[in-house]
Amino acid sequence: MNPEKTAHENHKLEKRLCREVGRAIVDFNMIEEGDRVMVCVSGGKDSYGLLDILLKLQARAPINFEIIAVNLDQKQPGFPDHILPEYLSKLGVKHHIETQDTYSIVKKVIPEGKTMCSLCSRLRRGILYRVARELGATKIALGHHRDDMLQTLFLNMFFGGKLKGMPAKLVSDNGEFMVIRPLAYVPEKDLIRWAEVKQFPIIPCTLCGSQENLQRKQVGNLLRDWDKKFPGRLENMLTALQNVVPSHLMDRQLFPFERIKVTGEADENGDKAFDEEPLPDTAPPVADDEAGNEVPARSVIPIAAL
Fold first, then answer.
1. CA-to-CA distance for 233 and 238, rounded, in angstroms?
2. In this structure, is the dihedral angle defined by the CA atoms of residues 92, 94, 100 and 106, taken in order, positive or negative?
3. First to last CA, the chain
4. Are strands 95-99 and 36-40 parallel, antiparallel or unpaired?
5. pLDDT score recorded for residue 291
């Protein structure tokens, strides 16, 4: 690929990332005037991408909000603790590095050979809540993307017996903070490409030596395979998470099945008892965005606020 074409493709990618992050922020009212957004930066491609795009949107947004990047150094063996401070200082972004030796605690508590992830994540969450409180953060931004959210949906269905995903916005479990995921509409493959374009100083995610989440990996491989074989399928799945029909599921807490009665009146949402539910056999409709790129029609939404 020649340099001009490469530059053009990179520009298209940047516009797409800004558009999708901006759309998620507007759709879920993630960031408001005067917010102090604590962006959790781990050193992986997703959190680097999140911080980069939020800084771009901050510069052009019609509202004023503050960004502060936070990294938790858990003292895993081999963790290169100089990389993030140097990168964030060079970037000129406000940041805070919190150093807590949770690794030693987890190693003492968890038997050898057992996965450390569950306890580690609980400790990490508590520390980050405390840091957010001390910094006066009004929002905590995490780098989970579209594929993470779909993986979580399938993991809960397959192994947890719940129809539960990963929300784009939700109050923290201690009730104190608003947690947001501005990358909710962004596919992982775009973040991989953007990390290559920007040459982020990626820190490996295997430093603690903990066991790999095999179930999540298998589900991730399944989704990636579908995305290759059936373009548009993951986009449709994400759309489905935003178009829930409780009357056509089986959760008695969401829909009062015990109270419904026959009315004698036609209802287009009623059950067509003996019909197969029709399914589309074509790819999702596409339209052109402002740059002339083909995108799913539902994506062509003006983001006046960003």
1. 9
2. negative
3. 32
4. unpaired
5. 46
